[in-house]
Amino acid sequence: MKQVIIFLLVLILGFLVYDFYKDWERFHAPNYFYESSDEVDLNYYDKMTVWDYEEAIQDLNTYVKLQWTANDIDVRSPEKDNLETQNAVKGYAQKLAKVKYLEKKLVSSAIHKAEGLTNAEIKKINSNDFKSKSAPDDDPKQILKQLFSDQSAISKKLGSRSALIYETQKLLVAKGYAIPLDGVFAQITSTALADFESKNNLFPDGKIDILTFEALLK
């Protein structure tokens, strides 16, 4: 009888510890917070762009933490395939694309200044570019390309988890492949990629590279 009581007490204690851990985990999001680049031009001719960049980073980080704490969704490594998760990952990709777009402008400005250009000259260059190009967040494909640029390095090994893998799986499913939508780069996803690459005259290594991703977006 005494052993049964001890067993029940240990079981209850285990449940309490697990519950405490889940509560702690809920309010400690994974260390995925985006940090501003040291290579940006903080003296950019348009101060609002610098402000927008910092604000976009704060918005992105708040979004990541909110999705984790409120909805139990890790937008960088989604584990589910419900509508709520899909919308959360899409929202993350859009916010990340905005950060990357602004960061690219500010880094480009810093490079131009290192070459001796002035703010006025950089403004003229950007004005000419704007006439021929639209912002990335106007085009869903551009958003995915930004995601590829940010996460390709962490999405190549079997067992990896990322939003890029999740989006790649969605593209493969749209092409007719019966694979899970879980954000995990498992063998079934690699095999589907290799088959797609083979059918599109690409090297069939089953990896997410730029040529394969571009072909999937077509």
UniProtKB/TrEMBL annotation:
<dbReference type="InterPro" id="IPR036365">
    <property type="entry name" value="PGBD-like_sf"/>
</dbReference>
<dbReference type="InterPro" id="IPR036366">
    <property type="entry name" value="PGBDSf"/>
</dbReference>
<dbReference type="Pfam" id="PF01471">
    <property type="entry name" value="PG_binding_1"/>
</dbReference>
<protein>
    <submittedName>
        <fullName>Peptidoglycan-binding protein</fullName>
    </submittedName>
</protein>
<dbReference type="InterPro" id="IPR002477">
    <property type="entry name" value="Peptidoglycan-bd-like"/>
</dbReference>
<feature type="domain" description="Peptidoglycan binding-like">
    <location>
        <begin position="164"/>
        <end position="216"/>
    </location>
</feature>
